Recover the amino acids of this structure.
């Protein structure tokens, strides 16, 4: 069955069409089509505190196009969520009303905890964990959301105001880094017995360029090499010489820094990068609702 999920993030808006099926008592979400538009809402929000008219207009045009695609694809159901950028924008509610009026979408505003919970649901849709303890780390443009699970039991979920676009704008508070470090150190783990699962466009790209995309694994050593290599290039050089998209070239380094900070703090040696995200979690939620 085909479902659709729309994620309005700080860096981009994503529309995912995915087929969901069950095989041997496991649920699989298989991407059919993914459309990603770099709306860059966080540039405004973490700079001037609101979303400019230009970016708001581009967002509404993007969502209007998404609506037309949904009408053509005819998924069983769809869901639309907005995260940190619209949540923190002083004109966020006004823009949500405009989206409903012009694009025909009623958007759910979710906080970092709910975002982490939705992404975490991908725990059971297609990849295995060798150990009981798992940390899910999602790094976006505005926030870093982390879930800690022991098997299927949720031990803790936290959201931190540390994101790639927020860092570029110099809005990452040192106290938030200290809060993250203090929380991570409370997690009693043995580094050989913990699964680390990373999500977000930046870690996906880093793994593709520097890791092992076939086995979905990025080692700490390769992440360190990636961070150092990428830092040696200017944003323009990352576009011209490394072939990165302009909206990826600037955020990939601060995102790598966040992952490095987390992995070093908990002494993790590698991270699983299964290319999951909020849109995948939304599709999974829709399937489960439909099934009930």
């Amino acid at each position: 069955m085909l479902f659709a999920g729309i994620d309005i993030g700080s860096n981009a808006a994503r529309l995912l069409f995915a087929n969901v099926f069950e095989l041997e008592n496991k649920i699989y979400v298989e991407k059919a089509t993914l459309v990603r538009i770099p709306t860059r809402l966080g540039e405004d929000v973490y700079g001037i505190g609101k979303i400019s008219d230009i970016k708001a207009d581009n967002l509404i045009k993007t969502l209007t196009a998404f609506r037309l695609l949904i009408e053509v694809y005819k998924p069983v159901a769809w869901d639309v969520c907005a995260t940190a950028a619209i949540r923190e924008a002083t004109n966020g509610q006004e823009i949500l009303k405009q989206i409903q009026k012009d694009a025909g979408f009623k958007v759910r505003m979710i906080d970092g905890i709910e975002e982490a919970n939705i992404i975490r649901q991908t725990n059971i849709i297609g990849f295995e964990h060798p150990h009981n303890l798992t940390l899910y780390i999602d790094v976006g443009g505005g926030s870093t959301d982390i879930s800690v699970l022991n098997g299927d039991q949720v031990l803790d979920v936290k959201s931190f105001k540390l994101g790639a676009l927020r860092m570029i704008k110099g809005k990452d508070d040192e106290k938030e880094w200290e809060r993250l470090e203090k929380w991570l150190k409370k997690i009693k783990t043995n580094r050989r017995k913990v699964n680390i699962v990373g999500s977000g466009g930046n870690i996906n790209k880093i793994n593709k360029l520097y890791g092992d995309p076939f086995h979905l694994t990025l080692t700490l050593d390769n992440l360190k090499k990636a961070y150092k290599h990428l830092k040696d290039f200017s944003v323009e050089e990352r576009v011209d010489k490394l072939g990165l998209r302009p909206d990826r070239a600037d955020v990939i380094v601060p995102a790598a820094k966040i992952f490095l900070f987390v992995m070093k703090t908990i002494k993790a040696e590698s991270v699983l990068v299964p290319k999951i995200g909020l849109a995948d979690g939304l599709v999974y939620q829709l399937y489960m609702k439909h099934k009930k």
Summary: The chain has a mean pLDDT of 92.
